[in-house]
Amino acid sequence: MKTYLVTGGAGFIGSNFILYMLDRYEDVTIVNVDKLTYAGNLENLRPVEGNPRHIFVQADICDKAAIEDLFRKYDFDYVINFAAESHVDRSISDPEIFVKTNVLGTVNLLNCAKQAWQTGDDAFKAGCKYLQVSTDEVYGSLGAEGFFMETTPLDPHSPYSSSKAAADLFVKAYADTYRFPVNITRCSNNYGPYQFPEKLIPLMINNALQRKELPVYGDGMQVRDWLYVEDHCKAIDMVAREGRLGEVYNVGGHNERPNLAIVKTILSYVKEHVDAGVGEELIRHVTDRKGHDRRYGIDPEKIRRELGWYPETDFETGIQKTIQWYLTNQEWMEHVTSGRYQEYYEKMYDSK
Ligand code: NAD
Ligand code: DAU
After folding, report:
1. Which of 2, 4, 10, 112 is 20 to 30 A from residue 54's alpha carbon, by CA?
2. Residue whose CA is closest, atom 23 of ligand 2?
3. Protein residue closest via CA to atom 14 of ligand 1
């Protein structure tokens, strides 16, 4: 039996990871620590409700006493740190919480894990590992050519990506200084079920289904490299189990598309399958994001060569599955777009 401490497991990727792992393995138990911010939603975990191999604990990763307590209670083999403030636009209007959660929270987890796993000078419990779920945004922005490699220098631009880069450097410092067993994964943009509708794809699906305007930042020609969330979960599982200690692994599927193309793909699917009255007249070009990164593109060669990882879901299949999921889970959408989030959403939307 392997015991995982998963943080941020009520969010988009964390919940997909928990569902993936519990479905795939009989010998995995997951303790899921989540603060349940606006982005955390226990409804995402409904399929594992009552499963004794999923234990939910509401706590802040910055809370030293709470995390130490968990390490006393459970004999963890892995820590997988998803917990973060994850939205670039929010980081531009309120950077401080990004430093608290993304940097200080990561350092607290590293400290608690190190303390619990240390068996001697530079020696740790056999097989244990801390995996930091990072992002391609730490590399900054690309021109028309080239890809992010693990050796690409860090050059973050937004408060969000700067906080993620700072966290990565602390993870590296623990490996370099204490020989602490770590990996870092840096993935491109994810899409799929349970993604909070402040992010491009679920926002556009939701708005299209409601015949609302689709706010495209600037000219809409910024490029992102989209990966179906389950393929990211598979990569994290493989890196945790087989990744070489101390290494960084980039994760992406060579699926670069401009934002405007994504929006048009969603519109044409909705028009054809759901509502013939929906069309491109819903697109509205709005003020660009400050410091907007122009292009991201991952070179996934290292994870393919070393671990045999490859993406299983192509974009055409993935986007259809995703739109279908939001269509059949409109109650989920209603719940997450009401309450505390609604206020923020209306404010952001009205200001565009
Ligand atoms: P998300 O915003 O959907 O979920 C974040 C989760 O963390 C939420 O459940 C939230 O309640 C929880 N959380 C926030 N602050 C916390 C705290 N202080 N203590 C405990 N829990 C806290 O984010 P996501 O899109 O699922 O991203 C997960 C991770 O993957 C993040 O670290 C992000 O940087 C990284 N990442 C995301 C993408 C993407 O495209 N979404 C791509 C690459 C990497
Ligand atoms: O690359 C990985 C990153 O992808 C993750 O680390 C982040 O956590 C995740 O939020 C995501 O960041 P982006 O900023 O790329 O994602 P977002 O969905 O916010 O925006 C995608 C692109 O779409 C970006 O170029 C901005 C644009 N956009 C976004 C929104 C919300 C619009 O044009 N209109 C919008 O309303």
Report:
1. 112
2. 200
3. 84
Ligand 1 atom, smallest distance to 160 CA:
34
Residues 109 and 80 sit within 8 Å (Cβ to Cβ): no
d(CA 53, CA 75): 14
**Tens digit of each residue's pLDDT (9 = 90 or more) over 67-90:** 999 999 999 999 999 999 999 999
The beta strands (E) that lie in 220-318 are given as: 223-225, 227-228, 248-251, 256-258, 283-286
Residue type present at position 322: T
Interval 144-173 mean pLDDT:
98
Burial 71-106 (b: 16+ CB within 10 A, else e): beebebbbbbbbbbbbbbbbbbeebeebbebbbbbb
Mutate to test the pocket of ligand 1, among 37, 170, 228 (most ligand atoms within 8 A of CB): 37
> Is the C-beta atom of 259 inside 6 A of ligand 1?
no
By annotation, the residues acting in catalysis are 136-137, 160
Distance CA 254, CA 21 (A): 25
